[in-house]
Amino acid sequence: MTLVLVCFAVVIGCILAYVNHVTEGPIKAQAEQKLADGIKAVLCTNDLTVTANDSIKQTIDGKEFTFIIHKAADKSGKELGAAVESTTGGFGGDLQVLVGFDTEGKILGYTILQSAETPGLGAKADKWFQKDGKGSIIGMNPAEGDLTVSKDGGKVDAITASTITSRAFLKAVNQAYKAYKNK
After folding, report:
1. What is this structure's pTM?
2. Could you give the angle at the alpha carbon of 8 between the alpha carbons of 6 and 11, nearest 5°?
3. Which of 39, 112, 119, 160 has the smallest number of CB atoms closer than 10 Å to its CB?
4. What pLDDT score does 183 carry?
5. Mean of the pLDDT values across residues 92-120?
6. What is the mean pLDDT of residues 158-174?
7. Which of helix, strand or coil describes residue 35?
8. Of 65, 69, 127, 133, which is closest to residue 101 (Cα–Cα)?
9. Which of 108, 67, 73 has the alpha carbon at shortest distance from 87?
């Protein structure tokens, strides 16, 4: 009986390794396509070329964060700004945001790349802070002061019943801006 169990485990392990190997390429390609689409969305144009992908490590509140800055230019070579990947801890886990900044630091757009927030509450962050959302940050410039929720004395309306997620989202945006300006 032990021999059968060991053989079964080895066969299943080999099958899982094979499936992992076969799906690794398509999963990577899908992630790259999602990032490329996200960069176009947050910079509000399809007419762009990513000119550089810089990684910056910064220590914030004793914890090291890595930011990836995707600098972009239009087809003629004029700099458009950058899309910055930023991760912070939300209510349900990590919250990874891609934020687009123009050359002056104004927020052009954002998209959420990864979230484990509560469905129906914190998950509303994907729309809440957009141009037509109740807590819109589009067009704001973090150089004029960190973006904070109105409950903390800021200018941004928090997601109803989801202040922790709102704070985490705005922290990710503020950190992305600092990484962009300190590149």
Report:
1. 0.81
2. 110
3. 119
4. 65
5. 84
6. 87
7. helix
8. 69
9. 67
